[in-house]
Amino acid sequence: YITLGIKDEEPHKREYKNLEEIVYLDKYWENYR
């Protein structure tokens, strides 16, 4: 998992947030192409 180094959050929440960001970026790049 990619983590942003936010120390006040639980690791699984951090990982989930990053997964959402990755999905968002994938959709963005699909639209961009």
Overview of this protein structure:
With 33 residues, the protein is an all-alpha fold. It has one domain (1-33). 67% of the residues lie in helices and 0% in strands. It has one helix spanning 11-32. The N and C termini lie far apart (26 Å). The model has no long low-confidence stretch (mean pLDDT 69).
General shape? rod-shaped
What's the helical proportion of residues? 55-70%
Main beta-sheet annotation: none
H-E string:
H
**Count the helices. How many?**
1
Tally of distinct domains: 1
Mean pLDDT: 69
Strand content: under 5%
Report Rg. Answer: 12 Å
Output the keywords.
33 residues, single chain, mainly alpha, rod-shaped
Give a short overview.
The chain is mainly alpha-helical and 33 residues long. It is 67% helix and 0% strand.
Describe how the helices and strands are arranged:
Blueprint (H helix, E strand, L loop, with lengths): L10 H22 L1
